Amino acid sequence: MQALVDAIRQQGEVLPGGILKVDGLVNHQLLPHLTREMGEVFAAHFAPLNPGKIVTIEVSGIAPAIATAMVLGVPMVYARKKKPVTMKEPAFTAQSVSRTKGGVVDLFISSEFLGAGDRVVVIDDFLASGGTLRALAGMIEVSGAELLGIGCVVEKQFEDGRAKLADLNVPIHTLANIVRMSEADGIEVEAGR
Ligand SMILES: O=P(O)(O)OC[C@H]1O[C@H](OP(=O)(O)OP(=O)(O)O)[C@H](O)[C@@H]1O
Ligand SMILES: O=c1[nH]c(=O)c2nc[nH]c2[nH]1
Description:
Layout: H1 2-11, E1 13-15, E2 19-21, H2 23-27, H3 32-46, E3 53-57, H4 62-72, E4 76-79, E5 92-97, E6 104-109, E7 119-127, H5 131-143, E8 146-156, H6 161-164, E9 172-182, E10 186-191
Parallel strand pairs: 3-4, 3-7, 7-8, 8-9
Antiparallel strand pairs: 1-2, 5-6, 9-10
Helix pairs in contact: 3-4
Main location: cytoplasm
Subcellular location: Cytoplasm
Binding site for xanthine: 20, 27, 156
């Protein structure tokens, strides 16, 4: 997605600890024209798989996920990181590591909105180590739903998440690919794959 690649070139910053800051377009501020195009691109890519639900994780996955769900005309379900009292027991749960806040986080998906018979595409903002997507895939499997594919806005190729998720045997589509980055040399970004 060329507009996203251009925006990362203009706004992206490399922070200590191998974190790419794209707060002005993905994490803290959203640019509607970019978010809408993300949804259109993901929807066009995954429509042939005939998904019936989009699944994501709060908080930064929600925007590209709902943009995709709106184009496909299907519900969007998101994993929460704190279990609200309204969530019916038993919920599907897993743990992942928050890359931007540090520490292990618990994830909860309501069993009211995911289960056997659901055909699911997962959309998230970052594919880095793949740990978060692994946790989501586990919850989807336990629910009895079928995982059809994974879409992420930004892939950090050098963290190898794509290879680590190969055993899931589903297509992974990303919109921008960070080939390498460092505080000294900046960001090498290309179109996703
Ligand atoms: O492939 P991984 O190494 O698991 O990294 C990717 C995850 O890390 C971020 O979550 P984080 O909790 O940092 O951020 P958020 O609250 O902004 O969604 C991002 O939103 C992905 O879900
Ligand atoms: O804002 C972010 N920047 C990153 O580099 C990253 N990696 C995983 N999750 C991330 N979120």
